[in-house]
Amino acid sequence: MPQILSAFGSGLLFGHGLIVSQMVNPAKVLGFLDVFGHWDPSLALVMGGAVAVSALGTLIARRRGVPVLASRLEIPSRRDLDPRLIGGAALFGLGWGLIGLCPGPALVGLTFGPTGVFVFVAAMILGMAIFRLVPADWPQVTFRREASRVDG
Amino acid sequence: MEHFTPISALIGGLLIGASAALLLVLNGRIAGISGILGGLVPPERGQARWRLAFLAGMFIAPLVYVGFGGILPTVVVDAPLPMLVVAGLIVGFGTRLGSGCTSGHGVCGIGRGSPRSLVATAVFLTVAVATVFVTRHVIGM
User: Fold this and answer.
1) What pLDDT was estimated at residue A139?
2) Contact predicate A106/A116, CB 8 Å
C-alpha cells in the first residue's frame, strides 16, 4: 500500500510539472522544436531542471542501495546501442514532431484538452499493443541472416 | 522569443525531476511514462497497481491544480485527424521499441548518465526538430 501511495504522489507531481511548464500544450512544444522559426527555448529549461533533480535522486537512490519502500532498485543497466533503441527513438521523434505530443503530456491533457488528445492517446495505446506482436530479437534477426549467408 | 517562459518552465522541470527522484528513491522505479503505460498493455502480473496509481496521479493533477486556484494552460492541437492517428501509433510503437520517451530517456536516463538514453534523446530530438522544420518551413503546414 505505501508503494501505491508514493506512486500516486509521484504521478501527481509529474502532472503538475507538465501543467506548470505548459508542456501539456503541443503548440508550446512545437515552438521549442521549431529551432529554425520563432524558437521558444522554454523546454530546454524544463529538461534542465528535471534532469538536475532526477540526477540528485539517482545519487541518493544509489547511495542508499535499496529503495525506501521496495526490495531493490529497478535501474536499467544496458550500455550498448542497438537498432531497436535508435529506430524506436527515431520513430518517436517523428511522431513527436508531427503533433507536439509525447506520452506524459498526452495523458495529462486527456482530461481537459480537446478531443484530438483523446484520438492521439487511443492510437498511442494501440501502437503499444502492436509492439507486443514484435519478436524480441527484431530487427537484429535480419542482420544475422545476412551474416550467415556471407559465412556459408 | 516572445513566448519564452523561463520561470514557469524551470519550476515545472524541477517538479518533474522531483517526481522522478521520489519514485526512484521510494519505489526503486524509473518514472518513464511510456514504460509505465506500456507495462499495462497488457498488464504485467503484480506490476499493474503501482502503474495505475501513478497514472491516476497524473489524471487527477489538473483537478488538484485547479482546486488550488491554478489556471490550466490552453491545449492547442492543430492537426488533422489522420495525422493524429498516425503520430499516436508511431509514438506508442516507437517509445516501446526504443525503451523510453522524453521522461524515461530524457529526464531519468540522462539524469543517471546512461549512454543509451543520451543517444536516444539526441536521436528523437534531432528527428523531431527535422520533422517540424519540414512540416513548417518546407511543406508549410
Assistant:
1) 78
2) no
Asked if A92 and B137 come within 8 Å (Cβ–Cβ), the reply is no
Residue ranges making up the domain that contains B94 = 77-141
CA B78 to chain centre: 19
In this structure, is residue B124 part of a structural domain?
Answer: yes
Contact status, residue A121 vs residue A107, Cβ threshold 8 Å: yes
User: A-chain residues within 8 Å CB-CB of B14?
Assistant: 17, 49-50, 52-53
Inside any domain, residue B116: yes
**Which residues on chain A are in Cβ contact (under 8 Å) with B11?**
20-21, 49
Residues contacting B27, CB < 8 A, separation 6+ = A3, A6, A7, A10, A67, A69, A70, B50
B29-52 burial, b at 16+ Cβ within 10 Å, e below that, comes to bbbbbbbbbbbebeeeeeeeebbb
DSSP B43-55: BPTTTHHHHHHHH
Q: Determine the residue of chain A that is closest to B88 in CA distance.
A: A124
**Number of separate domains in chain B:** 1
A16 or A140, which is more confident? A16
Rounded to two decimals, what is the model's pTM? Answer: 0.93
Q: Is residue B92 within 8 Å of A123, Cβ to Cβ?
A: yes
Complex ipTM, two decimals? 0.95
- Of the candidates A136, A86, A40, A105, the one whose C-alpha atom is nearest the C-alpha of residue B103 is A105
Q: Cβ contacts of residue B133 below 8 Å, gap of 6+?
A: A34, A35, A36
Sign of CA dihedral B122, A78, B27, A3: positive
* Residues A126, A128: Cα–Cα separation, whole Å: 5
Could you tell me the end-to-end alpha-carbon distance of chain B, in angstroms, rounded to an integer?
A: 21
Q: Which residue of B has its CA nearest to A48?
A: B13
Q: Give the sign of the dihedral formed by CA A21, CA A27, CA A29, CA A31.
A: negative
| Residue ranges of chain B with per-residue pLDDT less than 50 | 1
